[in-house]
Amino acid sequence: MIAGNIFEWIGSLFTDFLFAPFNWLRLTIAKSDAGWWTSNAVNWFFLLVLLVLFAYWMKEAARFKKEGTEDRA
């Protein structure tokens, strides 16, 4: 019974609170003239964050390989 309540709470958290900005974006902004560009700006932002983190990861991997401390197990 407790597990069911936990999953209902998690579902409510996402649908009622965390996704509320995306619902607002979908229902109001996306229907305007620049709606497509605004909606896709969110995707471009996430892609930019991903590329920055990937570049950092590759830089650190190269540094560990150069120092000889990379775990090659």
What does this structure look like?
The protein is mainly α and about 70 residues long. Helix content is about 80%, strand content about 0%. It contains 3 helices and no strands. The longest helix is centred in the C-terminal third of the chain and has 33 residues, at about 35-65. The protein starts with a helix and ends in a 6-residue tail after the last helix.
Share in helix: over 70%
Poorly predicted residue ranges: none
Put simply, the count of helices is 3
Query: Number of DSSP strands?
Result: 0
User: How would a crystallographer describe the biggest sheet?
Assistant: none
What is shown here, in short?
79% of the residues lie in helices and 0% in strands.
Set out the fold topology.
Elements: H1 2-18, H2 20-27, H3 35-67
Main traits of this protein?
single chain; 73 residues; mainly alpha; 3 helices
